[in-house]
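pls ignore typos typing on phone
inosine 5'-triphosphate + seq
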Amino acid sequence: MNEMIIATKNPGKAKEFKIFFAKYRINAVSLLELSREIDDIDETGTTFEENAALKAKEISALLKRPVLADDSGLVIDALDGQPGVFSARYAGEPKDDQKNIDKVLRELQGVDPSKRTARFLCILAVAVPGERTIFKKGFCEGKIATSQAGHHGFGYDPIFIPDGYTTTMAQLSPDVKNQISHRSDAIIQLEDWVKQLQ
Ligand SMILES: O=P(O)(O)OP(=O)(O)OP(=O)(O)OC[C@H]1O[C@@H](n2cnc3c(O)ncnc32)[C@H](O)[C@@H]1O
Ligand SMILES: [Mg+2]
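k done
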């Protein structure tokens, strides 16, 4: 089976990439599985694109192989786009999904359901040594719930209600999430590139 390195240390993302790539009979290998220890990349960019490129290019240069990176996050209209690029560390260091959820719910206390619109964004960057980096962008529109529910997925899934659904992303099965998510929206656009890896 062919392999594709995914420049992530997030086990939730890694699991989703494994499922997508398995359809093309490609083994998606995250940084958590490599035999060598890879230092964390400082995500110093101010945009999802910059951070995705930083992660993909640094790991690709280190391993001298094609690498795919994902920079993603939650954009909440009533919070002027926050947590945005700071989604992973919205409630501070070290990153903590539950603290992030608690902070969003606190910040949105008293905000009317009609004004709780938000979207997940995913930027994928593919870095191949000696080639130009490829970018793909995916969205998933929805709104922020008033309390958390569900245990599937990761990150902000327990408070995100995708448009067209009445439950949170974390209450939907992984299969459904993988059909509607920002990550799948972006990955589908890479299909032609992925197929030539087979
Ligand atoms: O940088 P890597 O190692 O890939 O892992 P990370 O968790 O730090 O990832 P990001 O820098 O891209 O930050 C993305 C954050 O946005 C949130 N997020 C992204 N995709 C999500 C999803 O599908 N469901 C819920 N939350 C998500 C979650 O809090 C992530 O930690
Ligand atoms: Mg990160």
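Residues 2-195 form a domain with the Maf protein fold (CATH 3.90.950.10). Residues 43, 88 surround magnesium ion (ligand 2) (CB under 6 Å). more later
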